[in-house]
Automatic annotation (TrEMBL):
This is peptidylprolyl isomerase. Residues 315-341 are annotated as: Disordered. Residues 31-90 form the PPIase FKBP-type domain. Pfam families: PPIase_AIP. GO terms for cellular component: cytoplasm. Residues 315-329 have a biased composition (Basic and acidic residues). Keywords: Cytoplasm, Isomerase, Phosphoprotein, Repeat, Rotamase, TPR repeat. It comes from Pleuronectes platessa.
Length: 341
């Protein structure tokens, strides 16, 4: 291990052992999955990120070696460790210049956001040399003035290729595309079993996977259109789940994006109509239900039922409000009597 530490030092990486691991040093062929906790700090001790607390929960990092992860130094240092080992690595600037982008993605993920949010319109190298904000003051400062960083790593697991199922992010584009129908079917099964929250997550994962692939294609090209047609039923199912969860404005937003592209999508109009009705948008609901009947007259009985339900709710609401304000302007009511203490 001393020889390994010497090699690291020659590469601009200083290793300090905090706690030794157990067993022999593992072998790390390409395709090995490593799981580790990390704490990143500046050389003055300022903490930037901690996987044990990021997003209010403890979630270790998972890497598949040989997949050209953006922060290559993490792969380099991990293969110098034993399972269970804790070590600090002080890495020169040539190894850390892309950390702001990696950190931004990890923070987005921990907050439930798209990991690529804020990285849509230029590549990583271009962002490093631009004034593009990453949405975090500390990362903007680090991006503007790259410097050495200290990574405290605890290696938790080393899984050899074939001993685990690949996560979506670690798959090739072809593997991701082949996985989507399976994700869709799993979502449908969960929905039928009444597990709406779990089904929602499955549909979301399928959409996110396709959106990620779609970004690599030119808008309107054959491959882009093919993926968009795969996204549409997933998004409609996602909206159905959101309807059941009472997330009506989200349904309106997603269905509006669908009917903007596909003016004959009767399911999108139908779901949007139900969402509008739920939030008392009578005019919009009636317009969407009328469009549903225009596109598919056979849905007349269903539309009539929804309209009756909406009208019943409106009458009930008006009656409730009338009762609430009854007597407020009743001139026959006895005048208020002033009292003194």
């Amino acid at each position: 291990m001393e020889e390994e530490a010497r090699k690291l030092l020659e590469e601009g990486i200083s290793k300090k052992l905090v706690s030794p691991g157990k067993g022999e040093p593992p072998i790390f062929p390409d395709g090995t999955k490593v799981v580790f906790h990390y704490l990143t700090r500046l050389c003055d001790g300022t903490v930037l990120d901690d996987s044990r607390t990021m997003g209010g929960r403890s979630k270790p990092m998972e890497l598949i070696l040989g997949k050209k992860f953006k922060l290559a130094v993490w792969e380099r240092v991990v293969i110098s460790m034993r399972k269970g080992e804790v070590a600090e690595f002080t890495c020169e600037t040539q190894h850390t210049s892309l950390y702001p982008l990696v950190s931004q993605s990890l923070r987005n993920i921990s907050a439930g956001k798209d990991p690529l949010e804020g990285q849509r319109h230029c590549c990583g190298i271009a962002q490093i040399h631009s004034h593009h904000s990453l949405g975090h003051k500390d990362l903007d400062q680090l991006q503007a003035s790259p410097q050495p960083l200290v990574f405290c790593i605890e290696l938790l697991e080393v899984l050899i290729p074939g001993s685990f199922q690949l996560d979506v992010w670690a798959m090739s584009d072809t593997e991701k595309l082949q996985l989507v129908p399976q994700i869709h079917e799993e979502g449908n099964l969960l929905f039928k079993q009444g597990q709406i929250k779990e089904a929602t997550e499955k549909y979301y994962n399928g959409i996110a996977c396709l959106k990620n692939l779609q970004m690599k294609e030119h808008h309107g090209d054959e491959a882009w259109v093919k993926m968009d047609l795969m996204i549409t039923p997933l998004l409609l199912n996602f909206c159905q789940c959101k309807l059941l969860q009472g997330q009506y404005y989200e349904v309106i937003e997603h269905c509006s994006s669908l009917v903007f592209k596909y003016e004959d999508n009767v399911k999108a109009f139908y779901k949007r109509a139900k969402a509008h009705a739920a939030v008392w948008n009578q005019t919009e609901a009636r317009a969407d239900f009328a469009k549903v009947l225009e596109l598919d007259p056979s849905l007349g009985p269903s539309v009539a039922k929804e309209l009756r339900a909406m009208e019943d709710r409106i009458r009930s609401k008006e009656k409730e409000e009338k009762g609430r304000y009854k007597g407020l302007f009743d001139h026959n009511a006895p005048p208020a009597t002033a009292t003194t203490g």
